[in-house]
Design a protein that fits this description.
Elements (H helix, E strand, L loop, with lengths): L10 H14 L3 H13 L7 H9 L27
Helix pairs in contact: 1-2
Length: 83
């Protein structure tokens, strides 16, 4: 196992780490290891939802879809000042 020394560790941060470790029922060292492990853990890019949508439409030939004709934009309705 390797040893890591962190210099200039803020006292307030140390106190917060101690409280969080106590809430999780572990030592400050274990809590720091858990935090560091979670921070550097490789996460897949994109969400499961995005991957599912991409997979669902993967076989769709987008180039062959019809493009509907565009309609002119509606003009905003002007409100009467008396209202």
């Amino acid at each position: 196992m390797a040893t890591l020394i962190i210099r200039n560790f803020d006292e307030q941060l140390k106190a917060l780490l101690r409280v969080q470790a106590a809430r999780h029922g572990c030592s400050m060292e274990q809590e720091a290891r858990n935090i560091l492990r979670a921070a550097v853990q490789v996460r897949p890019t994109g969400s499961v939802f995005a991957r599912n949508i991409t997979r669902h439409f993967a076989d769709l030939a987008v180039e062959e879809l019809p493009i509907p004709a565009r309609r002119p934009a509606r003009l905003p309705t002007l409100l009467d000042d008396a209202a």
